[in-house]
Amino acid sequence: MTGARFLFVTLLNLLITVAEIAGGLVSGSLALLSDAFHNLGDSLSIVLGYVAQRISGKQQNRQRTFGYRRAEILAAFVNGLFLIGVSVVLMVEAARRFMKPEPINGDIMLIVAVIGLLANLISAILMHRGAEESLNIKATYLHVLADALSSIAVIIGGVLIVVFNITWIDPLLTLLVSFYIIYETWPVIHDSISILMQTAPQLDYDAIAADITTIPGVIRVHHIHAWLIDENKVVFSAHVNMQDVMLSEAEQTVAQIRDLLVQKYHLCHVTIQPEVHHGANDALFVNKDRL
Asked: Burial code of 120-149, b = ≥16 C-beta within 10 A, e = fewer?
């Protein structure tokens, strides 16, 4: 996603935020204020997401030998936590409004909500493509999409208030939108935590081991490690028992193993440790602190 697009979406969301805060205060609509705070969160998350994307593109160095790809995962995690936190606060305020209703100007609420919806839809369209490629941009895209849905809810509420004077629809819609945001955001937080905790990716490790042992000169595989740098890049290492051959021949076998894993299983960084007798009785996964 380009910097110009990030900047445009950020400025658009800031404009929506100002308009909705003013409209929410004047009209007395909690749903409109909730949409405003979500948009403020969007602006912050878009800036954070853009900074993280730029950082993640930096080359690896002595301090970060795997590079900076985790910056986007950290940004996705922070964005998700922020969005859930805001939703919980709004749910508490909505519950208070049920017990103590306040007058609402439905006309102002409706006009501002329509403007917010149009702006949010433009932002969501601009970010949709990037959301398919990056967990970080997906988290930001969910912020924008949630606000678009919130604007729709506010519009419905505004119509009901103007036509039927049903003021309790305002906190009800706030609750529904908040529940939906939490439901959509939780997978982002879950995936981010899994990557940060170096949870093993979903691979058929038995099939991998079986494929490696079909390569001439390979006897068995043990002590496998696999983890994710980000949602797309898998790092893999394994110890491989081979026939006792010259180092130059072992290098050729290792190259065949690496090609197999990259081409068939799409692993991005493969490290193979060739051995003859060492670890010959170890399991595929070894539960001890040694390499």
From this structure: bbebbebbeebbeebbbbbbbbbbbbbbbb
